[in-house]
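$ run holo --ligand "flavin-adenine dinucleotide" --emit tokens
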Amino acid sequence: MARVSQVDFLVMGAGVAGLRAAVELARHGDVLVVTKESVAESNTHYAQGGIAVAMEGDQDVALHLEDTVNAGDGLVYRPAAQVLVAEGPVRVAELIEWGANFDTEAGELLRTREGAHSLPRILHANGDATGAEISRSLAAFARVHKRIHFAEWTTVTGLVVADGRVIAADLLDRTNHLERVSAGAVLIAAGGAGQVYSDTTNPAVATGDGIALAAEAGAELADMEFYQFHPTALSLPGVPRFLLSEALRGEGAYLRNDRGERFMERYHRLLELAPRDVVARAITREGMGATPADARIVHLDMRHIKNLDLHHRFPGISAFLSQYKLDLGRDLIPVRPAAHYLMGGIRTGLDGRTTLRGLYAAGEAACTGVHGANRLASNSLLEGLVFGARAAQSMLDDQLPIETAVAPLAVPVPLNDAEEARLEELIAKLQGSMWAYSGLLRDESTLRLGFAAQEACAAGLEELVAQGKGSRRLAEARAMSRVAHAILHSALARTESRGAHFRSDYPKRDDERFQKHSAFTGDGRVAFQEW
Ligand SMILES: Cc1cc2nc3c(=O)[nH]c(=O)nc-3n(C[C@H](O)[C@H](O)[C@H](O)COP(=O)(O)OP(=O)(O)OC[C@H]3O[C@@H](n4cnc5c(N)ncnc54)[C@H](O)[C@@H]3O)c2cc1C
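-- output --
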């Protein structure tokens, strides 16, 4: 039988949202931060471009709000965006005080610009390693706190619900040991789900576990059809889709098709700095051949930029490219879009409360409506800070007692080699089908093919579960399948195109019917609601 223990607050995830929340919670109780790998492994760690923040007073804040609302294509929940931009400066100032070092020149913070921002407002660190610096500084600050405890290399595999409230979570460590931990409040800060797609900028931990567990426990998901595809991931055969930050275009990079033409003028007046969905679809269209085998290569071109030391400004990107003998100042860099950021997620209010008592969510796993149908570049690190702190405050305010969870747990049986291989096959098929059928361009027929693939995957996974099998990878596969299910249902129901969701069979935006958020409750039904 598995061990049972308890803690005041349980935080699932050690990215920016989870760590920021933990710091707040530790002022009032013991916090257990659970993370699938080391604390350093999260989407946060890989964030390159920077953190958007308006630190120059009211007018600056108002402009940041307008840019956020405009990028979201009519669906940003304005009160959430208002909170983000207004509280952002305080949260960033606090982070600097706690030890985050952003790039400066002559004592002034340096700011860059990215797509759809009306002015340079993005702080960065070590050139293009902003996330790593935020993760490092927050983790260092949290680690010295006596009331924050870390469970690394540990996977949350289930939430325990009693009388309509989440009272505990199941934790599986790397020796397949299972523990049930009761907590007064559980925060899901487990990040996004890029791994649902075969082509993604996200690390392996981003399998949507938090979203899937919340849905399974009965919490509502929102806006799951809106997955942002980053326009420029490196496109080399057999090489991961390494992100080539939007900041490259912010510093003047051009996009060129296989004939060497700059093509963005045919798509948007902001050219290479148009909203991400527009740029991503433009690259897809320029790269399409008559058949998939004829696909044409689109390139990012910085060869004309002479007034900037590209290696100094982008040291991480330059170092990665040099492994493949590519140089930003000398070569055309092959690019293609890849799944990057989930605007939807677990529905929360402005305070991180979900629709289920005792369960809170923040960061990329949550959906406050702050990004609407399309996230403004570099708004998500800020989101993690602002809403991580807010969710923690609600967990403190609610003062829910710890209920002891006594239910005995069956200890999972590890998978054998053949089963592991079968599991990887099921996952790869799911990821490939999501990319092919529910990616940048979708329609009813492709989405129905996506359902068939997802159902086949789910059936294969449940066969393993029925035999009492369990592992981190099996839990991740089930999460990806569940998240795919929610994306497909939500994408099928939204018969319009908006932001990151482009339906080839409904190419226009339809405000009359769909200027609303989608709600997915797990039973396959999608409702549209005004917030
Ligand atoms: C390559 C890349 C570049 C980016 N660049 C930028 C940028 O420049 N600016 C910007 O604002 N945003 C950027 N983003 C997006 C941004 O990094 C993320 O949206 C943000 O960091 C999410 O933070 P989070 O705290 O919500 O989750 P994450 O940072 O993803 O953290 C999730 C945590 O949850 C843990 N976890 C997941 N599942 C489980 C489980 N079952 N059990 C236990 N733990 C679990 C993970 O191990 C991890 O610790 C980028 C993203 C990527 C991938």
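-- notes --
The chain is about 35% helix and 20% strand.
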